[in-house]
Amino acid sequence: MADSNEMTINLVVLGRTQTGKSAAGNSLLGSSDFESHRSPSSVTTCCSLGRSCRISGIIRRSGCELALRVQVLDTPSYAHSGLSKEQVTDTVRSALAHHFGEEGLHLALLVLRADLPLCPDESDHTIQFIQELLGPTWKDFTAVLLTHADKAEEAGFSEEAYLHSASSTLLSLLSSVQHKYIFLDNQKTITKEERAVVLKKLLNFIRQNNYQVLLLKHSKE
Q1: What SS3 state is found at 69?
Q2: pTM, whole model, 2 decimals?
């Protein structure tokens, strides 16, 4: 927390190529800090930290309104079209320690496409990746962002119907992270009101974890 009237939340976005990680990060920041476009290869090749302006009207503690700042670490995809798994892991681990080593990480946001099924092998590899980065308490500090939610809606799925029809692999993953998930339509510019709703949900996840942070050191142990 920068001062008694301000709270900063530290987030990292993780996921596979073309899931919309960078676009999701931009939506959370209310900016276009991160490069994001369709491409036949992985767009993000290094980690980058984005910071929001002060946001009011989102959070109150002890009866007082606090200004909110959001910091988002954008990361290369896992797996990556141009980097080995080891390179991605080392790059992200180093960036987490550099940017959040002192203040700590509030949430890792695993970005998945709502319009594509989650297969067991993909889920296993992704969970292994997150475990390597965050350690044994990863479930307490991980939430799922389901992007391209507009595609699921166009197909006639409400959020409830979508989850009712989802694969057992996805449902198992959501259960493991205590059902911390958010649907996000990041194919269009997010409105101030829509962004406020998403940020309030993230703050609720952080509150459920008693505002704990994960302190990360640059170590391969």
Answers
A1: strand
A2: 0.90
